[in-house]
Amino acid sequence: MHIETFSESFRLAETFTISRGSRDFAAVLSVRVRDGDHVGMGECVPYKRYGETMESVSTQIETLPSEITRPILQDALPAGAARNAVDCALWDLEAKRLGQPVWKIAGLEAPGPVQTAFTLSLDVPEKMEIAAAKHAHRPLLKIKLGGENDMARLEAVRRGAPRTDIIVDANEGWTAEIYSELAPHLVRLGVLLVEQPLPVGEDDMLSEIERPLPVCADESCHDRASLSSLAGKYDVANIKLDKTGGLTEALALREAVIKQDYTVMVGCMVGTSLAMAPAMLVAQGVAFVDLDGPLLLAEDRTPALAYDDAGLHPAQTALWG
User: Which of 144, 233, 243, 259 is catalytic?
Assistant: First the structure.
């Protein structure tokens, strides 16, 4: 078996901005695992926030033995982007070997389309209002916040999309004082949840202050080992394959999250349809889905995930799984 990594770049439809910076391209690391005539594919997005780079993730993957298996992989690499790409590629390889879809191999129900949030990136209020109006037909908008004038941005988005459901993501950009000040206004504007308002390591205050709307753990939730640190602070857990280290742990984390009575959100980094394809299996039946990576791209994989009024559709086997 041969494992190959290669970097790829996909142009975004518009500049994407969060509290930590902006980008015009989705930079991804792809993994190809070949076994004879069978090839499995995976994709990850190395994330600087977690100390990852293209080079460091590639190096992690290069240390793996050629005869790697999914069970061995779980201990060979930590949760993160490198393990994610290889894990998903191994699932895809197994599906190709057996001639069966991944959902069936994993003992899941056949997947269907899901409604996904569409993300509006951080900008001045006037531009965010225009963007909200442009996308007001979508069932759920996700608003990136975490800077000055957040209240003005929220008001602008609500004016632009008066009937659309909204969730907000502060990307660790608030303090407890800012969150407490904004929370009643979030409720007034009909926001369904707020994602990671406080920085990791500074979020203990969430257990001491009033939470008038659900608070979602993103940067604070990686895999099952991180669940114990969420108690009393969060109501929702955001599962991303680049954090869990692949589909294998993501499915196990979803089960654990549900057993501990958290609401489930399934999210993504800014990647292509190849990265969303395995996440679609985790997203079945959950409360919040944020797999809009392909919708943010000006160019994508072929075949890409299809999107229509029914939502985002599962991948064709020619893409993955």
Answer: 144
Please check the confidence at residue 136 and state whether its pLDDT lies above 80.
Answer: yes
Q: Is 144 a catalytic residue?
A: yes
C-alpha dihedral sign at 156, 157, 163, 168 = negative
Q: Tell me the pLDDT tens digit for each residue of 50-66.
A: 999 999 999 999 999 98
Q: Tens digit of pLDDT for each residue in 247-303?
A: 999 999 999 999 999 999 999 999 999 999 999 999 999 999 999 999 999 999 999
Q: Which residues contact 254 (CB under 8 A, 6 or more apart)?
A: 239, 264, 266, 282, 286
What amino acid occupies position 139? P
Q: Looking at 16-25, 81-90, 152-161, 192-201, which range is the least confident one?
A: 16-25
CA dist 105 and 287 (Å) reads: 24
Distance, CA of 221 to CA of 122 (rounded, Å): 23
CA 294/CA 299 separation, integer angstroms = 8
Query: Does residue 122 register a pLDDT over 90?
Result: no
- Strand residue runs (E) in the chain: 2-18, 21-35, 38-44, 118-120, 140-144, 165-169, 191-195, 215-217, 236-239, 263-266, 288-289, 307-308, 311-312
Any idea how long the chain is? 321
Q: Which of 96, 142, 233, 240 is catalytic?
A: 240
Written as six digits, the tokens of 61 are: 């993957």
- Does the annotation count 240 as an active-site position? yes
Question: Which string of b and e fits 284-318 if b means at least 16 CB within 10 Å?
Answer: bebebbbbbbbbbbeebbeebbebeeebbebbebe
31-70 in b/e burial notation, b at 16+ Cβ within 10 A? Answer: bbbebeebebbbbbbbbeeeebebeebbebbeebeeebeb
Between 150-160 and 176-188, two packed helices, what is the crossing angle to 10 degrees? 20
